[in-house]
Write a structure and sequence with these properties.
The protein has 2 domains: 256 residues, Aspartate Aminotransferase, domain 2; 141 residues, Alpha-Beta Complex (Aspartate Aminotransferase, domain 1). The chain contains 16 helices and 12 strands. The chain is α/β, with parallel strands linked by helices. The termini are far apart. The chain binds pyridoxal-5'-phosphate (PLP).
Length: 407
């Protein structure tokens, strides 16, 4: 299978086979877990040649720098995104941190979208300024604001699409056209992995994911990945991160991700169908003020999402805001009651698991974001985020209905 050109087969075929060679020792179909910290050499000369990369092929010497199970995971991710190469990390934040340290230095300027995951927000507000890296925040979907924020030392634009937790869609091709070739466009596509969208093909220079979410898809492993050109991935490996900062995934987690990715196409389709059904239900619920889901025709992101997201898939995550004065309660109090009364959905952060997860961004994922910055990004105290799982859509809607009744 490895001789196949992944562009010549459908996504469903590629995602099962890409990256996974039959095991050279015994022909095992599933990629073995190379649970080893180091690799032995027959002779000093062989070791020296492997360290010097003089032997063709893949020759790991120490798992912090490379491991066959992790390499299979990286190659599958590169094929999944249509990128030249990929670097796997121990978590999504490992991927975010790696990209920052690999491509930015003291005196550079980076533009972040004004609403990103709370951990990434901390990197933007604290870690990068501490390193002497200038940071601006704009709504990256607003191209005029984005262009106005560019400085002579701007090296990177960073955004999520759809973003966390407002599910705002940003036009990747338009951003790339606006910033030009010398500024790297880095997209966190965690909320909508392939086959929903392929942001490198839209013009992004680098795509990263928290693998912890849809790509592993089973809620049992942390992981991250960065995908881009061979040159950028070489720079990422050389400069940092997995090797020097020590954030590679464990071989066991790489194995779990490889296993999870085989069903990515099937799972994602079902997540999206369920999310659409739940979004439509919430849209007509008298207690709900706004539903944020790009699949809804009422969404300001809908037209762009139809162009940028593929096959009528709009992702499995939605947010919604309750009305104030629901049964005499503020939207915050009503939201708390709603969450506390859900029976199928678990109150938990994270997303992309088979189980439906529901959370309150203002007190959980985005609690670390300053209240005024939260509000500026639309994250009100009454906002609820739901990662719609793989259960029956009917059961999920019934669960919401009974929880609304109990408010
Ligand atoms: C959009 C996004 N990016 C990155 C991360 C960080 O991922 P991880 O928890 O795997 O470090 C998250 C976590 O929720 C996220 O939602």
């Amino acid at each position: 299978m490895s001789k196949l050109d992944w562009n010549s087969v459908d996504f469903e075929t590629m995602i099962i086979h890409a990256g996974q060679e039959h095991d050279s020792a015994y022909g095992a179909l599933a990629t073995p877990i190379y649970q080893t910290s180091t690799f032995c050499f027959e002779t000093v000369e062989e070791g020296a040649a492997k360290f010097a990369n003089e032997i063709p092929g893949y020759h790991p010497v120490y798992t912090r720098g490379g491991n066959p199970t992790t390499r299979a995971f990286e190659l599958k991710c590169a094929a999944m995104e249509g990128g030249e190469d990929a670097v796997a990390t121990a978590s999504g934040m490992g991927a975010v941190g790696s990209v920052m340290l690999a491509f930015l230095k003291c005196g550079d300027h980076v533009i972040f979208d004004n609403s990103v995951y709370g951990g990434t927000n901390h990197v933007a507000t604290t870690n990068l300024p501490n390193l002497g890296i200038e940071v601006s925040r704009v709504d990256t979907a607003d191209l005029e604001a984005l262009k106005a924020a560019i400085r002579p030392n701007t090296k990177m634009v960073y955004f999520e699409t759809p973003n966390n937790p407002m599910i705002k869609v940003t036009d990747v091709a338009a951003v790339k056209a606006a910033v030009g070739k010398d500024i790297r466009v880095v997209v966190d596509a965690t909320f909508a992995p392939p086959p929903i969208q392929h942001v490198l093909k839209l013009g992004a220079d680098i795509v990263l994911h928290s693998i912890t979410k849809y790509i592993n898809g089973h809620g049992d492993a942390l992981g991250g990945v960065v995908v881009g050109s061979a040159a950028d991935m070489k720079q990422l490996r050389a400069n940092c991160m997995t090797k020097i900062n020590g954030c590679p995934p464990s071989p066991f987690n790489s194995y779990l991700v490889l296993r999870g990715m085989k069903t990515l196409a099937l799972r994602v389709e079902r997540h999206c169908q369920n999310a659409m059904a739940v979004a439509k239900y919430l849209e007509q619920n008298p207690y709900v003020k706004t539903v944020y889901y790009p699949g809804l025709e009422s969404s300001p992101s809908h037209e762009l999402a139809c162009r940028q997201m593929e096959n009528g898939l709009f992702g499995g995550i939605l947010s919604f805001e309750l009305k104030d004065d629901v049964k005499g309660l503020s939207s915050f109090e009503a939201g708390k009651k709603l969450l506390n009364n859900m029976k199928i959905a678990s109150i938990a952060v994270s997303l992309g698991d088979p189980d439906t997860l529901i959370e309150h961004p203002a007190s959980m994922t985005h609690a670390g974001v300053a209240p005024e910055a939260r509000l500026a990004a639309g994250i009100t105290d009454g906002l609820v985020r739901m990662s719609v799982g793989l259960e029956s859509a009917k059961d999920l809607i019934n669960d919401l209905e009974q929880a609304f009744e109990k408010i």
